[in-house]
Design a protein that fits this description.
Elements lengths: L6 E3 L10 E3 L16 H21 L5 E5 L5 H12 L7 H8 L7 H31 L3 H34 L2 E4 L3 H7 L5
Antiparallel strand pairs: 1-2, 3-4
């Protein structure tokens, strides 16, 4: 019995008869699955990219980028924008949240812009402080190195807080002057996430 390479012999046929059924060509392998990044992965990737941008800007001494006076900002808008930054020193998060939840927030883009930006600044600062605290606590397991790192963090914490106070006062003053500005790294990240127009 002879068969071709693409033919399969049929069983149960008369002996000596070569009945064959043509075999279909092999199907191509399925394509590899495409994995889309999750929302958290997209945010983390964006934050990583913008942190390099912020580091470069701060090396050049730029605390604010693309500063321009907004002609549509009223004196009330400027005052609320100032308070969005300055109140972060004493009671973080409260004032920007109030501004964002108010009914007039959509009608006053200058207030909304600075409220979102100051809220993000406070969230980033306090998140970093909490992570440093947790990391320092974990490193306390190592006898000598843990103690040295603990002392270093203890000494650096007031300096970091004082630097954030100076930045918040500077940004508040810029906002009170009616300026829209970009905080290096932070504002571009907020725009990429569509949290800031």
């Amino acid at each position: 019995m002879t068969t071709e390479s693409n033919d399969i012999p049929v069983t149960g046929a008369e002996p000596g008869a070569e009945n064959t059924v043509p075999q279909a060509p092999a199907a191509p392998p399925p394509p590899a699955p495409v994995f889309e990044p999750t929302a958290a992965e997209r945010i983390a990737s964006g934050a990583y990219q913008h942190s390099a941008e912020a580091a470069d800007a701060l090396r050049r001494g730029e605390l604010a980028q693309a500063s321009a006076i907004d002609p549509n900002a009223s004196s009330d808008d400027r005052l609320i924008a100032l308070l969005s930054y300055v109140t972060q020193i004493i009671i973080p998060v409260i004032m920007p949240v109030i501004v964002l939840l108010s009914e007039s927030s959509n009608k006053r883009p200058f207030q909304r812009y600075h409220a979102v930006q100051s809220l993000a600044f406070a969230v980033v600062f306090w998140s970093l402080m909490v992570m440093v605290g947790i990391g320092t606590t974990i490193l306390q397991i190592i006898p000598i190195i843990g103690a040295l790192i603990g002392v270093m963090v203890f000494c650096m914490t007031p300096i970091a807080w004082f630097a954030s106070v100076l930045l918040l006062l500077y940004y508040g003053l810029q906002a009170y002057q009616g300026r829209r500005f970009a905080i290096p790294g932070l504002t571009s990240f907020l725009r990429d996430q569509n949290w800031l127009a």
